[in-house]
Amino acid sequence: MKAIKYLVVGALISISAPAMAQTDDFGAALAPVSQALKENPASAAGLAKSYIKQFKKNPEALIALGNSYLAVKDFTNASNVANMALTAAKKNLKQQAEAYILMGDIEAVKDEAGNGGNAASHYATAKSLDPKNPIGYMRYASIYRKINPDLVEKTYAELLENIPGYPIHAEAGSSFFSGNKFDKAFENYAKCDINSLDEGNMVKYLISAVQLRKYAEAYNIATAGMNKFPKNVTLNQLGLWSAVETEKFDDAINIAQKFLALEGDKNATDYTYYGKALFGAKRYEDAIKQFEEAMNEDEKAVEPLQRISECYAAMGNADKALEYSEKYMQKNPNATPSDYAKMAQIYVAKADQGVDKAANYKKAIGIYDKMAEKYPSIASWAHMIAAGVADKSGDTALGASYNEKIVSALWNKADRDADETSYLTQALRLLGFYYWSDKNDLESAKPYYEKLIQLEPNDKNAKAALGIEE
Fold first, then answer.
1. How far apart are CA 455 and CA 73, in angstroms?
2. Which of 154, 151, 176, 184 minimizes the C-alpha distance to 1?
3. What digits encode the pLDDT tens for the residues 121-162?
4. CA 119 vs CA 12, 90, 113, 315, 469: distances in Å
5. Least packed by Cβ within 10 Å: which of 2, 162, 363, 420?
6. What pTM value is reported for the model?
């Protein structure tokens, strides 16, 4: 169990102290000791000595003192007092379990980046001594939440077996969340009555859903959370994101307006999501303002440039769409095939409108050439689209050359998938038609139709070209 990070070390300290109610007889006496430990440790020794003398037979009082030492990371005295408590509790298994929990907490805090075996051993002893104390189970599970989720689940199941009805799922969700096990966190939170979750757990539940891209569920969680905790920034922020991802654009706009009115910093992603909500509602000019705000927030942001391009394209302004698409491509070293395709489509749209047709069709084809070179796995798809653009431009010979590339790449490909087979089928069909119809050369068309008939036995043109009767 090397390199374990105890993300809840602070929680271990704070939770242990109230594990047993501090009765008035030692609570008042402990207060000045705890105060001295925090503010003037040198003066605490005498006070602690007097306290121990007074309560040396009271395990609860000794464990409370041990937690005070642990709070200031005085591990030596904390351990000494824990052992005193264990001796004092020799006839009480429940109190012994509390002492072992303190011992486990000491080991966990002492070795927060090392081997968790010592802490786990103490917690295991605690839960065996007092199967009705949930803390032993929870602490034991916290040790293993990152490295052995199956053991954690078994521990929770053991807890429920011994303490039926214990509200384990929210605590389990929080524990898994702290270990970045978002799938397990989500699974446990989903078993809770969502309206019973406190604000912190509601946020963790929502973050887990977003991390897993369960946006429909995230939207429902956010809605419940915002109703209960309307001023929580994270609930509103992720509510906006999940509403956009589920295409609830009007809801997203309403959430965004409330979210932006809350105190706290907003980031470029937040303004981008607001812009996407407005775009989805076809409020393109308003969307552009939010995308511009995103870039003001973060000058390195690139997505807003592409989104502005899409706004202008939707408004029919191809020149501005192209301007921002080019800016996006220049600024984004991680442009995707989809990004290249969007830029090519703008050139095609301009050409379709009669604007410098030959040049714009050529530029679009050039982009598909670049895609085929940059992304070999989709080269045949890029060649298929380029062939269509070439045919649209009137250069059917160029279109045929791209279809030839597809046939060359895919005909003998052993692991050809369904999409590639469809590209190949279309290329063969178009090449047959090109030679038979455009070139009036049936003999040149036949080899393509012969291949086509193997893929599409009922293709009418192939049958006709090859003299196969219906």
1. 75
2. 151
3. 999 999 999 999 998 988 888 888 777 878 888 998 899 899
4. 11, 21, 12, 63, 82
5. 2
6. 0.65
